[in-house]
Amino acid sequence: MKTKMFFLLLLAACITVQAQTPVKPTYVNMIDEIMKGVPAYWRTTLNDLERGVGYIRKGTVERVCLSAGGRPVYRIFYGKPNDVKNTANLSSSMGAGNARFYADKSAPDYRPTLFLVGAVHAGELEGTAALMNLLAILETGNDLSGKSYPFITACAEKMNFIIIPIANPDGRARMPLPSMMDLDFESFRYLGQGTWKDGTLTGYPSCKQVTPIKDASDFLGSYFNDDGVNMMHDYFFTNPCAETKAVLQTAETFAPDFTVLFHGGSNNKPHMAGSGYLFQSTKAKINAFQQFIADEYKDIDFSLGGEGVNDRSNVSFNLTTAISHVCGEPAITFESNQGLNYFDEKQPWLVKYTYDEIYQHHMISLEGLCKFVLNPPQLVEQNERRR
């Protein structure tokens, strides 16, 4: 019995030591090989963004804030601003019994508006790559590989686009690669969520146990700005960081008909992470969009799975939810596949997609979003009143 107890204690000690061993990510030995496989159209660096906004002529570029680290956050607008005759914020207008006091969208020349945000978590750059190509399409009709997108170009004549390609430039400055493609899981976590003071991985979702995380972290990873703030879980109502405030103010000012925050979801298939605490009308629109994508693209076997709407009582109130609560319209978290060299027998649904496949998932989704906001389904909406 004593011998058995000794070995159990020794095993426990080994596990403890292993769990507390500082991580030594392997990606540093793979950078040259990883960079060989990056397509020319995949442009996600801060320098790429600076060059990209310098070429914009048809859109309007605005530096909406400086990040915690003093880096610019750019917002690009295409289209014609709507006059929604705003006389109150959403909360007050709903207290008055009609959301039109916040945004009256009944004018015959009203242009539906998409608000698209990339790199809130700045190691999740798949959406940024797509948005940089979308900017090229809106400027020239062609993406950065030279492929034309006539449908999206035609949509730009009838609707508005608001684009923030990199919402968290501090995190992007900390990310040495153009994507997480081909990384092992440990390097993926290291570059994403960083490490604690002892050098061990903060991991997910344990990285959310401390906010701001800066003083508890040795390496911040790309999730956070330079103050250690995760924008998805900021102090929305009291003291949001400048980057978060810029996103929320954009949503409140422009009242977009649909907002997408582009994220990366490891090796899961592209899907919508569930949003909670939503108005009934917003839930209906999100569910309708999810069904629309499944129906519209069934011939190519593309859909956006996931929960879409999450009514569980313990779901987090995050930036996606906060956006819906300042503009009264759907906001979703798009989770992309990231092409990791990672598989798990316990998660047989995981799959590794290529750069081209990931890019096409985004472009199909963007096309679907345009179709949806230009011809929204007729939903029965009730006035929702909040005192």
What does this structure look like?
- It contains twelve helices and nine strands.
- With 387 residues, the chain is of the alpha/beta class.
- The chain starts with a helix and ends in a 13-residue tail after the last helix.
- Helix content is 35%, strand content 12%.
- The protein has a single domain (31-374), classed as Zn peptidases (Aminopeptidase), CATH 3.40.630.
- The radius of gyration is 22 Å and the shape is globular.
What's the gist of this structure?
Helix content is 35%, strand content 12%. It has twelve helices and nine strands. The protein has helices spanning 2-20, 31-36, 46-54, 90-95, 126-140, 150-155, 169-174, 185-193, 242-254, 280-296, 319-327, 355-374; strands spanning 60-66, 72-78, 113-118, 160-164, 195-196, 217-219, 258-264, 271-273, 331-336.
CATH class: Alpha Beta
SSE class: alpha/beta
Which architecture name does CATH use?
3-Layer(aba) Sandwich
How far is the N terminus from the C terminus?
A: 67 Å
The profile of the biggest β sheet is:
7 strands, mixed
Number of strands: 9
Task: State the domain count.
Answer: 1
How do the helices and strands follow one another from N- to C-terminus?
HHHEEHEHHEHHEEHEEHHEH
Shape: globular
Which percent range fits the helix content?
25-40%
* Radius of gyration based on Cα positions: 22 Å
Name the CATH superfamily classification: Zn peptidases
Number of helices: 12
Proportion of β residues?
Answer: 5-15%
Strand order of the largest sheet: 1-2-4-3-7-9-8
Low-confidence stretches: 1-19, 382-387
